[in-house]
Model the fold of this input.
Amino acid sequence: MTTRIEKGQNAVILGGTFNPIHNGHIHAAREVMARLSPDIIVFMPSGIPPHKRVENDRELRLHRFEMTKLAVMDEPRFFVSDIELKNEGVSYTIDTLGTFVNLYEPKSLSLILGTDMFLSFEKWKSYDKIFDICNLIVLPRFKGGTAELFDKLRADFYDRRDRITIIDADVIEISSTQIRNTVRDGGSIDAFVPKRVAEYICENGLYR
Done:
């Protein structure tokens, strides 16, 4: 993991609750890095997202942040940001992006979205203004699953097509809910998360 973000970089943000971060998240970031070669990919653990219930617990926020750092510590062009975790209110993407731009003045900025997020993107706060700040990188939910993404682009975002990149990437289908349930049931999560993350979850008694 890189220790800092330099100003003037081509940056990509991957947001998520990361509760916990898993191999699917890491794989998605590696796919984007391999295909588009940005200077840096910034993992952004969410604070209180408007679309998803996350426990507003300071200790859990710290755990999610620490697990994300552990997961990417061997990746020289990955960085973990606590911008949203510092926000005590609901974190809207438009505001997070504005904060990031003010802090780091990136040469270019892109945001990674999964299928479900892209299909509901027009429901986001000030979604039209997000295009003025950054590009979108959209990954399908499964290999070869880009048809519905291109349909959505043509139907709703055709005038913004130059700001949207759809990548037919290989996808590792894992969910954080699945991992939490496996831990609760006493199963092994070694196949789902980086080794350091599995050890951290065990050592801190998370999701029991």
Notes: The two ends are 29 Å apart (CA to CA). Helices lie at 23-36, 58-72, 93-104, 115-119, 127-133, 147-156, 176-184, 195-203.
